[in-house]
Amino acid sequence: MWRSIEACQPEFQRESPYYRLHFQPNAPSRGPARVCYNVPKAPHNFEGFFLHNGDMLVKAGDPARAKLMYANARIVPSFSSWAFRELLEERIRTADERARAFAAPDPKAWPEMMVNSRAACTGCHQR
After folding, report:
1. Structural domain range at position 69
2. pLDDT of 88-101, one tens digit each?
3. DSSP 60-104
4. Which of 53, 55, 68, 117 is 20 to 30 A off residue 16, Cα-Cα?
5. Are 69 and 75 in contact (CB under 8 A)?
6. Contacts of 118 (CB under 8 A, 6+ apart)
7. Structurally, how many domains does the chain consist of?
8. CB of 98 within 8 A of CB of 90?
């Protein structure tokens, strides 16, 4: 996930993941950089990417950075129409407790991640 962000924004700082400092509102429609933005095939790619990335940081035991990563999804205008915005807000509110739950030795006790949820594909592709 870090490499994906850095491919889009080479100056992105992992220690302080405020993507808003680097966001460019004009998405290219062709070439590799098109995956860095919302595009017709994935109208909420940006939001879904940061939801997934935040989940991965929570699972890795880094809820503080996860909250910042999740919050990056809010910076695009399409966030207000995203069907999963409340799911993202809930993830921010519960990041600390979710990180503690991932420390459980039994994976059955682990919280759901975006990739295993109803938002798995639709988080990026649903209009």
Report:
1. 39-127
2. 999 999 999 999 99
3. TT-HHHHHHHHHGGGGSGGGGG-TTHHHHHHHHHHHHHHHHHHTS
4. 117
5. no
6. none
7. 1
8. no
Inside any domain, residue 58: yes
Alpha carbon separation from 48 to 24, 62, 72, 96, 114 (Å, rounded):
17, 19, 10, 20, 9
Q: Is residue 19 part of a domain?
A: no
Tell me if 96 is assigned to some domain. Answer: yes
Predicted TM-score (pTM) of this structure: 0.89
Residues 86, 33, 23, 70, CA torsion sign: positive
Residue 121, domain member (yes or no): yes
State the CB neighbour count (10 A cutoff) for residue 14: 9
